[in-house]
Amino acid sequence: MKIEFPKDFWWGAATSGPQSEGRFNKQHANVFDHWYEIEPEAFYDQVGPDTASNFYNSYKQDIAMMKEIGLNSFRTSIQWSRLIDDLEEGTVNEDAVRFYNAVIDECLAQGIRPVMNLLHFDLPVELQEKHGGWESKHVVELFAKFASQCFHLFGDRVTDWFTFNEPLVIVDGAYLYQFHYPNIVDGKKAVQVAYNITLASAKAIAAYREINTNPDGRIGIVLNLTPSYPATNSPEDLAAAHFANLWMNDLFLGASTKGQFPQELVSILEKDGVLWESTDDEMRLIETNTIDVLGVNFYHPNRVKQPSISSNSLAVDWMPTKYFDDYEMPGRRMNVDKGWEIYPKALHDIALNIRDNYDNIPWFVSENGMGVSREERYLNEEGVIEDDYRIQFIQEHLYWVAKGIEEGSNCFGYHLWTPIDCWSWKNAYRNRYGFISNNIHTQVKTIKKSGHWFKKVAEENQFD
Ligand code: BGP
């Protein structure tokens, strides 16, 4: 059976500045750089982001390899901590301007669309320590200023901008479940941070509308969408899944596409005494600065059941898990290395949800991928990693994307996480995701079987 895609489909791959560039010539530490400095043992094998995949030095060769595997789109991010010298004043660093200009120009020269994200978890640590990071409206203002600088500097050539990557992961990681610095557990602050990031995104969009003169230019946000499925059809489990979807998906989807937070969620947060502080002016700004385009990161679904009494009583002040518990569905198909369920059909559910409930806004898969450890197990005699599991993973996800498109979904592209094996937050280099492997000791990069396969798919705009 042939699976076909629309003309001009984006065949891409995604990374981020902090995970690929390395800290070479960088001015400021971000929250992860800092965390690694003070607690290296929190990171797998004690490997930090200092070298990453050396993109700062090898961007030319890396982009050439991306071309070789057929990519027509490359999503990465501009590091605030690299671009801005004086965080309060917003003065730019000339070396960083040179670097990002060179990356953008190289992509364009190779016929690859540069898709730029502004914040990929990498808040400059000074803003966390001095102002409380995303708890602070001052940081919201500084972000809008940083965004404006980017639009002025690079907006003539970059047509596709994204404000934040996965805001929910910042909220979850830094304020609820302790996997992002500063590892606070505080439900009320978490809710305020969700709001402040929404406001920061809207302010950046407002700045874009003023600055942009490129008729093809558009701006959006990248959300990690994780459809939540109930363990059973009992009213309690259905209610648990309903709340999980409100919190994990509808919160940022509603705010960014409609300028409205879901009223039902607002009422629950209000009743629980944790609703954010906002002003009428801010709410108006959010309402009038919605996105043009949506990036969807999808890795795994969420299975939930009604909360147990113990998890209720564990909730120190307020936790979203007051309303649901994780459910380990027997027999579910797992990527055991990463510990995530593989359920490609969820992408179809996402496609129809966006079509039916979010005005069928144009969207693309901005990240999807399979992290596998010790991939050298799969090296063949020619030195190529035979990652057939990744080919199968991509095929199955693309199948459901294509089906969604056939049913009217407005999806225009697919990006694998990631083009070249890169550094990953706390997991460092444990799980590899790339089309291209990277020997972290020698920085020798080699195309995997999936990269060769993808080239053909991208060229033919279809696969069998
Ligand atoms: C996403 C992030 C990426 C990337 C990916 C893989 O949530 O946007 O930055 O890291 O997950 O996850 P991990 O690196 O934890 O294996």
UniProtKB/TrEMBL annotation:
Signal peptide positions (record): none
Xref: Pfam families: Glyco_hydro_1
Source domain of life: Bacteria
Xref: InterPro entries: GH, Glyco_hydro_1
Family: Belongs to the glycosyl hydrolase 1 family.
Protein name (record): Family 1 glycosylhydrolase
Originating species: Carnobacterium inhibens
